[in-house]
Design a protein that fits this description.
192 residues, mainly alpha, two-stranded antiparallel sheet, two-stranded parallel sheet, 4 strands
Amino acid sequence: MLNRVDPCPLQDQALVDWNRGEPTGVDPGRDLASLILAQHFCNFRLWKLENESRRKDVDDKHIADVKRSIDRWNQSRNDLIERIDETLLAQSPSADPAASEQHSETAGQIIDRLSILGLKVWHMRRRGRTQDHEQARECAAKAEILETQRTDLARCLDRLLEDIRVGRRFFRLYRQFKSYGEPEQKGHKTCG
């Protein structure tokens, strides 16, 4: 049976831990919590790599290497979203499509969005730790808005999972078939 999923505390604690001493990776085990953390780590790494790709003080080869790394992390991120959905669907009762409403976004996609919002809150709060009082106020106000968005989205995830439990809603796992320039990811060949 589908259990309640609350990814935000896991994601928040991971950011505290990872910003103390960044791990090189997070093992995506078979349980939902480890998949959520591994997927969140992909977003954590992507955030850092995106910042690195904006540097102006390095040569083009360095930027190209960073961009290729971004592609690999994005592939892992998408693969983990699908694994989260597979895990949740395996715990879910079979839905009757004729008697329930299909949700357009998967639970894994919502968890990914919660991860990104968690990163935005973390970095906005960090930017707000400044001697510039105006910037601190501005960052605090933005962080508050981001936290409200995240709380609202977490509530939507709760509602979706509850609706799935009682048979009101369902979602389907649609493979993204993302390739990020790699010719054969997860056994899928690129077309064209």
